[in-house]
TrEMBL record:
<keyword id="KW-1133">Transmembrane helix</keyword>
<protein>
    <submittedName>
        <fullName>YdcF family protein</fullName>
    </submittedName>
</protein>
<dbReference type="Pfam" id="PF02698">
    <property type="entry name" value="DUF218"/>
</dbReference>
<dbReference type="InterPro" id="IPR051599">
    <property type="entry name" value="Cell_Envelope_Assoc"/>
</dbReference>
<dbReference type="InterPro" id="IPR014729">
    <property type="entry name" value="Rossmann-like_a/b/a_fold"/>
</dbReference>
<keyword id="KW-0472">Membrane</keyword>
<feature type="domain" description="DUF218">
    <location>
        <begin position="77"/>
        <end position="243"/>
    </location>
</feature>
<keyword id="KW-0812">Transmembrane</keyword>
<dbReference type="InterPro" id="IPR003848">
    <property type="entry name" value="DUF218"/>
</dbReference>
<feature type="transmembrane region" description="Helical">
    <location>
        <begin position="7"/>
        <end position="31"/>
    </location>
</feature>
<feature type="transmembrane region" description="Helical">
    <location>
        <begin position="37"/>
        <end position="56"/>
    </location>
</feature>
């Protein structure tokens, strides 16, 4: 019973509420014999519903996340971590500024890999927006807080997107004579990242993390409830697919 209540409750808040309102508008227009606008309202409600359920977004996310599997052995000479956003002035244990969730997950994976391998960590990411923090500088402070020695941390703090991550990281790797980078980024982001690094002339060992969905598909009732989280996931997937298409088109 509790799952039915949760399902119904999802139509009380956006985006479920907007779906209900559109469907209600369609019914009202149909009663008023305005069939064309009614069909438009029903169609818009259906599209919004399909874009806001995990049954759809999880499948797209899974297709990206399954592009690469973590290697059984971290065989390389440096751990390269890609940023994913940061706040500039939020309080932290030993300073101010924090990495966003997915960037924090990537950082944690890198720190754990360091504990296993002792390889240096290169964090790539700059200050993307005026109100965001410098990702690499924040990551360095947090890595030191996780007991990674400062002399084992390299920072690339200029890049604003994945292509620049690859280009600027390549320059730093060349100066340090590092040739076998283990690339750590979110699993859904790995395919595009590998393409951009390849375009920059860098062969990487993909080490995906920050998984968003389970490997096994599920179609329980909660997967059919509209949610903003599912819409955010769908947006992330579409952004990746557009990036992959653009990379394939312009880098032939």
């Amino acid at each position: 019973m509790i799952y039915v209540i949760k399902f119904l409750y999802s139509f009380v808040l956006p985006p479920g509420l907007f779906i209900v309102l559109l469907a209600a508008a369609g019914v009202w227009l149909w009663i008023k014999r305005n069939k064309a606008p009614a069909i438009g309202a029903f169609a818009f409600a259906l599209v919004l519903y399909l874009c806001s359920i995990s049954a759809i977004s999880d499948g797209l996310m899974r297709s990206l996340e399954n592009s690469y599997a973590p290697p059984s052995k971290a065989d390389g000479d440096v751990i390269v971590v890609l940023g994913g956003g940061a706040t500039v002035d939020t309080p932290d244990i030993d300073g101010v500024g924090n990495l966003y969730g997915m960037a924090g997950n990537r950082l944690l994976t890198a720190a754990r890999l360091y504990q296993q391998t002792g390889l240096p960590i290169l964090f790539s990411g700059g200050k993307v927006f005026a109100d965001s923090g410098n990702e690499a500088e924040i990551a360095k402070r947090q890595l030191i807080g996780l007991k990674v020695p400062a002399d084992r941390i390299l920072v690339e703090n200029r890049s604003l997107n994945t292509a620049q991550n690859a280009a600027f990281t390549g320059e730093l790797l060349a100066r340090r004579h590092l040739t076998r980078p283990i690339l750590v980024t979110s699993a859904f982001h790995m395919k595009r990242s590998v393409m951009d690094f390849r375009e920059a002339g860098i062969a990487v060992v993909p080490y995906p993390d920050d998984y968003r969905v389970s490997r096994r598909a599920s179609y329980a009732l909660n997967k059919w409830s509209p949610s903003s989280a599912a819409m955010d996931s769908l947006s992330a997937c579409l952004r990746e697919y557009l990036g992959i298409a653009a990379s394939a088109l312009f880098h032939r």
